[in-house]
Amino acid sequence: MSKMETLDPQELDLEAGRELVRVARESIEMKLNGRKGEIEIKNPLLRRRGMGFVTLETFYGDTTELRGCIGYLRPVAEIWKVIAQAAIGAAQGDPRFPPLKRNELDYVIIEVTVLSQPSQIRTEDPWELPKLVKVGRDGVLVERDPWYSGVLLPQVGTENKWDSQTLLAETCMKAGLSPECWLDRRNRISTFTAAIFRERKPKGEVFKVELSQSEGDLMRKV
Q1: Residues 148 and 110 in one domain
Q2: Three-state DSSP state, 194
Q3: Does 4 map to a domain?
Q4: Which of 51, 88, 106, 199 has the fewest CB atoms within 10 Å distance of its CB?
C-alpha cells in the first residue's frame, strides 16, 4: 500500500464517530457468529491510516464495568481496519478477561478512541513533566527499551479525577515500572490527544465524549 497521510482525530465529526462505532460492533458480531464479509465504509476519512483503541464495558443500567480494551499506538492500517481489529481484540484477546460470548454482546457498551501521533516530552528538568501534561486533554505513553511500555487514554485521568503527577505515576505502573519512573531519563514519556465516541447504551445512540480540562470531570454531549 502506498504511503498515506496519518489521520488527525480532530478531523472526525460525530457522523464519522458513529461509523467507527458501527464498524467495531459489526466486527465483533461477525467474529462471534463465524461470518466473513466486507464492512461498508462510507466516509473517505476512515480510509486514512490511524491509531485507535476500542473499550468494551458491560452495562448494568446505571453503572458499567470494564470488559476489554485493546488498541494500536502506530498507524499500521486504515483507521477503520485498526478499529475493527481492536474491537475483536477487546472482545477476545484482552488477557484480563475471558473471551466475550455471543449472548454478552447485547449488554456491552462500545467506546472508540482515535489517537493523535504520540509526541515525546523533552525537558531538562524531569520535575517539570507534570506541568507539561494536561489531565482532560492528554493521554500518556511510557516506554523503556523494547521491554516496558504502558499507555493510559485521556479519559482515564478524568474518570479517576487524577492530577497530572498521578497520571504519570499510574502510566509508569501500567508499563511495569515504579511509580516514579517518569523521573528517570532512561524512560520516554509521550503524550497524545484523542477523539472519543461512545454508545449511551448497548446498540444505542452514539455521542462524542468531551473531557473537562478544568475540573477533571467526564462530560458527555452529542
Answers
A1: no
A2: strand
A3: no
A4: 106
Does one domain contain both 77 and 172? Answer: no
Q: CB-based contacts of 13: which residues, under 8 Å, 6+ apart?
A: none
* Encoded amino acid at 198, one letter: R
- C-alpha 91/C-alpha 192 separation (Å) is 25
Residue at grid coordinates 505513553: 141
Range of the domain at 135: 119-192
- Count of domains for the chain: 2
d(CA 41, CA 70): 22
* pLDDT reported for residue 190: 98
Nearest 5°: the CA angle 19, 92, 80 is: 25
What letter does residue 200 receive in the DSSP assignment? S
Cβ-proximal residues to 103 (8 Å cutoff; 6+ apart), any chain: none
Please give the grid coordinates belonging to residue 209.
465524549
